[in-house]
Design goal:
five-stranded parallel beta sheet; 17% strand; binds 3-phosphoglyceric acid; Rossmann fold
Length: 306
């Protein structure tokens, strides 16, 4: 069995070594494709792979067609919008994710971005504090829960809206559950996005929703680029000079936002939320173990395509 680690954005070297060791101990072979710059490199690498470990790497119909021996793809992370699930299913390929394994890393970055915004991007001017401010967590999954846990330490007043998570699950964490995204945006000065990119959520953070935000609001996006209506966001930034937007996912209009709003807009040069030694270890090792377990016992616990 050949297990390919295909990561355009590599795991920490130590995590790669541990993954290799696990695969080796299971009696399988590892192939490594890191920092590739051309899709053809991925198409060549998947030719003889039985399993692939990926991050945000795109596994589309072309990649699947180039991988005749592929049985399983594990996304070492949470979101699997980068995998063509229906083509995988049609080709009897199992797709899994590793939920929760990198969520603390993403949550720490979200809070770090809030501090960075509150302190005016560390420009030397007098800023504000997070203590006592209202934080809205948009989607209460693994990352949202970690954001709530950390934000409590900052003494923030915490609210959440999640279309699927029951109110009692949210409230047992001491977080106030709100009935809609509209209510969350109308209530909170800080909003942290943790929704996946799906047909329903794409472009859902639009001008009408942003207009509900109170004065001096900050939106933090460590989720996905696609959930933002970029035209609406730019209009809102023009209309509301008190609003800040910080994102870990470079938007299509990054250059324009940087030029127009240098003191209110920040984007990381590369998605960094899950880029810690700990998260790389957790997610990478979980992915390797899930593949090994699938080959040895057929365990499909974390399958996301059905
Ligand atoms: C995830 O969905 O797990 C995060 O967005 C992290 O993505 P990455 O592995 O590409 O950094």
């Amino acid at each position: 069995m050949k297990i390919l680690i295909a990561t355009e954005k590599p795991f920490a070297a130590n995590a790669v070594n541990k993954i290799k060791q696990l695969i080796d101990e299971a009696g399988y072979e590892t192939a490594l494709l890191e920092k590739y710059t051309d899709k053809q490199q991925l198409l060549d690498a998947v030719k003889d792979a039985n399993a692939i470990i990926i991050r945000s790497d795109i596994i589309d119909a072309e990649v699947i067609a180039a991988a005749p021996n592929l049985k399983i793809v594990v996304r070492a992370g949470a979101g699997y919008d980068n995998v063509d699930l229906s083509t995988a299913t049609a080709n009897n390929i199992i797709v899994m994710n590793t939920p929760g394994q990198n969520s603390n890393a993403v949550a720490e970055l979200a809070l770090g971005m809030m501090v960075y915004a509150a302190r005016n991007f560390y420009d030397g001017s007098s800023g504000t504090e997070l203590l006592g401010k209202k934080l809205g967590i948009h989607a209460y999954g693994n990352v949202g829960r970690n954001v709530a846990r950390i934000a409590k330490g900052f003494g923030m007043e915490i609210y959440a809206y999640d279309a699927f998570c029951p109110q009692e699950v949210i409230e047992k964490d001491g977080v106030t559950a709100l009935p809609s995204a509209e209510a969350l945006y109308a209530t909170c000065q800080y909003v942290s996005l943790h929704i996946p990119a799906t047909a329903e959520t794409k472009n859902s953070i639009n001008l009408a929703l942003l207009e509900r935000l109170p004065a001096k609001a900050t939106l933090i996006n460590t989720a996905r680029k696609e959930v933002i209506d970029e035209v609406g966001l730019e209009q809102f930034m023009e209309a509301r000079p008190d609003f800040k937007y910080l994102t870990d996912i470079t938007p299509g209009n990054d250059a324009s936002l940087k030029e127009k709003f240098p003191k209110r807009y920040f984007s990381t040069p590369k998605k960094m939320g899950a880029q810690t030694a700990e998260a790389n270890n957790n997610a990478g090792i979980a992915a390797a173990n899930q593949i090994i377990d699938f080959f040895k016992t057929g365990n499909c616990k974390f399958q996301v395509n059905h």
